[in-house]
Amino acid sequence: MPNPSDGPDPIPAASPTRLARAALGGVLMGLANLVPGISGGTMLLAAGVYRAFIHAVAEVTTLRFRPRSILLLGAVGGAAVLAIGLLAGPTKALVVEQRWIMYSLFIGLTLGGVPLVWRLARPATAEVWIGAACAFAVMVLMALGQPGGSGGERNTALLLVSGVAGASAMILPGVSGGYLLLLLGQYVTILGAVDGLKIGLIETLEALRSGTLDLADIVGSSQAAPALEALGVLMPVGIGVVVGVVGVSNAVRWLLDHYAHPTLGALLGLLFGAVVGLWPFQEGVPPGPGDVLKGQVLTAETASEVEADDWPVRTFRPSSAQVGGSLGLVLAGLGITLLVARVGADADESAG
Question: Residue 315 forms beta bridges with which residues?
Fold first, then answer.
């Protein structure tokens, strides 16, 4: 239990309004984790539940169970899983086909977390500015670096690291889990495993329902093969996620409790730095014969088979209408997150 002498409880008592905000933050976090360049932690900041979420995770992972912590995590986690399951396909398609529109909106959503962090960080001391500058520099270096490729060979150690990276993105605003997976070369591998698990489970359930498959024969069946193969990828990733959530959440909580100003300054730097990698005027370009993709030289036949998700991306010169539309979408995203942050604002979120 928190010590009353330490100040207000960082995890407020559950109420319908607070749980609704937590669920909205979970939906935004789930969507953010689908798209390279967007941070799930940023979305929790925008919803105004970040500080409570961090302390709730830290409590549960240190075996301190309180109803308010469990309800908060259930609302955030359940909404995130639901959003990923229902909206993964449409969101991915929109990003691939309407990149500049979605990235403009994402910029606004990301910047929406800045006022909340700034309010927590005041007064702006030298520690705040130093933390912000260091974190911003790290994000710029990541944005300027070349991703290691969207796919790669299966490597258990690398999959564990990918899980830790994904968990860190849920905890640290400004850090994109999808982007880190791109840097590690595991983005397509993990997305493919998630899709394979879904396909395998659906085919297995249909075979069991129709009577063409018995429970005793599931392991060796062709219907279950995609799911079993996917589990070989997702199990080490899942272990990495657990390790990352436990380690990073407790580290962030400790930093916020003991070094609040430099930590909050670093969060500001992460938010601004995340925008660097979201330049909206980018488009996918179909590869041609002779291009190198994932370490292989494409022929005319293989180039035509490359899916739009894997097309190389280049910047383009926008039209006046696109610039105006982009600015409008940035303002719309900013307005959405500011509105979300105002709904049922809690005193604990504005207490430094």
Answer: 282
**What pTM did the predictor assign?**
0.65
Helix (H, G, I), strand (E, B) or coil at 301: helix
* Length, in residues, of the chain: 352
Structure tokens at 90: 């449409």
Both tokens assigned to 17: 């309004």
The SS3 assignment for 314 reads strand
Helix axes 177-184, 187-210, angle to 10 degrees: 100
pLDDT at 347: 37
CA distance 15 to 17: 5
DSSP state of 311: S
pLDDT digits 0-9 by tens, 73-118? 999 989 988 887 777 667 767 877 888 898 888 788 778 778 877 8
Q: For residue 94, what are the contacts with CB-CB under 8 A and spacing of at least 6?
A: 101, 102
* Cβ partners under 8 Å of residue 51, min gap 6: 10, 120, 256, 348, 349
Within the chain, what is the greatest distance between any pair of CA atoms? 70
The ranges assigned to domains in the chain are 7-278+323-347
Per the CB < 8 A criterion, the answer to whether 284 and 98 are in contact is no
> Which stretch of DSSP H or E encloses residue 192?
helix 187-210
Count CB neighbours of 160 within 10 A: 19
